[in-house]
């Protein structure tokens, strides 16, 4: 089947009469690809060549996951460390308090502290570091409440 030989006319024959749809067929990598463009919406759908599009989409998704794994963003580090801390009873109680929960999730200083894996390991394993962290949260809460008055 070659492009332009008329053999694919049965595919988009009914679509030809609709005013907002313009069908087009072309050959890519040995596959007949038929594209229907909705003029008013600017949306393009592919028929027949979906395997090619699917493979390209899959490769892009895999590359994105690899890059995300190798170069994690600060938000991912924070979320990962929060999962570890929620297993600790003292942190769960601190987080349940709505005043401190707001500070933990919205204060830049506390979030930066919790995004560092070394700091999280220290507050989990060392009582002194834990007490200093709790004090930091309470101090940041006092600053926040002082600003609102």
Unreliable spans: 1-15, 26-49
Please estimate the helix content: 55-70%
What count of domains describes the coordinates? 2
Put simply, the count of helices is 8
Give the spatial strand order of the biggest sheet.
Answer: 1-2-3
User: Distance between the terminal alpha carbons, to the nearest Å?
Assistant: 77 Å
Largest sheet: 3 strands, antiparallel
Number of strands: 3
Query: What is the chain-wise order of helices and strands?
Result: HEEEHHHHHHH
The general outline is elongated
β content, as a range?
5-15%
Backbone structural class: alpha+beta
Estimated radius of gyration: 28 Å
Mean pLDDT, rounded to whole units?
A: 74
Structure in words:
With 149 residues, the protein is of the alpha+beta class. The chain is built from 8 helices and 3 strands; from the N terminus they run H-E-E-E-H-H-H-H-H-H-H. It has helices at residues 9-12, 50-70, 74-86, 89-96, 98-106, 108-115, 117-125, 127-148, and strands at residues 21-28, 31-38, 43-47. It has a 3-stranded antiparallel β-sheet, with no helix packed on it. The model is unreliable at 1-15 and 26-49 (pLDDT under 50).
